[in-house]
Amino acid sequence: MIATIDTADPFAFAFDPGTTALIVIDMQRDFIEPGGFGAALGNDVTPLQAIVPTVARLISGARAAGLPVIHTRECHRPDLSDCPPAKRLRGAPVLRIGDPGPMGRILIAGEPGAEIVPALAPLPGEIVIDKPGKGAFHATALSDHLARLGIRSLIFAGVTTEVCVQTTMREANDRGFDCLLAEDATESYFPAFKAATLAMIRAQGAIVGWTAPTTAILEALDA
Questions:
Q1: Neighbours of 161 (CB within 10 A)
Q2: Spacing of C-alpha 118 from chain mean position
Q3: Which of 9, 30, 83, 131 is catalytic?
Q4: Cα of 34 vs its chain's centroid, Å
Q5: Cβ–Cβ < 8 Å for 22, 70
Q6: Residue 104 is inside which H or E element, if any?
Q7: Strand-pair category, 69-74 with 127-131
Q8: Per-residue pLDDT of the chain (223 residues; tens, 9 = 90+)
Q9: Catalytic site residue 83?
Q10: How far, CA to CA in Å, does 35 sit from each of 38, 44, 121?
């Protein structure tokens, strides 16, 4: 059965819930809570914290509709063998990847800061992708999971809009998936960057994908 979001931008988004998955990008303590990597880069984490209830509503609606929910975490091995020096040494943050922080070593798999915020915790059996890069397809098994599940369309939420979310959407678009971003279930440390990314995604006839409010997505799933 085909569902349609008539208010999607730049035009109506039609999808089959039976072949659609929700991907929630990097809703981790290191990016969202004070003392994590996002704050160490000098960012105000408050805007990211503000979308947690909306992301929770989207996840709940996806689960109720039977959509697979896939979570991603940007994190690295404890020995940093999958973290290129060019990534770790870039800029001048207060804390670098792998450094000890208030929530354990920054962006290291298994440390408290690398975990998804409790309000959005994965359920047993849901797929969790640990990714060493910005995009969720790079050096992960995401493509294999989506093929096994027969997924053709993807709904996206998470942070940050212009980095890991957009990168993963572009990767998915190149692989032939129809992609929809929940506008109010994604956020950036920089409002202008989020606005520009939404515009880029849906430009030129949805060159990367569509965007729509969470309420519209949930209404389509309910229908």
A1: 27
A2: 16
A3: 131
A4: 19
A5: yes
A6: strand 104-105
A7: parallel
A8: 899 999 999 999 999 999 999 999 999 999 999 999 999 999 999 999 999 999 999 999 999 999 999 999 999 999 999 999 999 999 999 999 999 999 999 999 999 999 999 999 999 999 999 999 999 999 999 999 999 999 999 999 999 999 999 999 999 999 999 999 999 999 999 999 999 999 999 999 999 999 999 999 999 999 8
A9: no
A10: 8, 11, 20
Cα diameter, the chain: 51
And the tokens for 212? 């729509």
Containing 168, the helix (H) or strand (E) segment is helix 166-174
Q: Tokens 């809570």 — which residue?
A: 33
Single-letter amino acid code for the residue at 154? L
Nearest to 215 by CA among 3, 7, 2, 1: 7
Catalytic residue among 164, 178, 179, 194: 164
Whether 179 is catalytic is no
Amino acid (1-letter code) at residue 38: G
Say which of 9, 26, 30, 130 is annotated catalytic. Answer: 26
134 is catalytic: no
Q: What is the DSSP letter of 149?
A: H
| Nearest Cα to Cα of residue 79 among 108, 36, 37 | 108
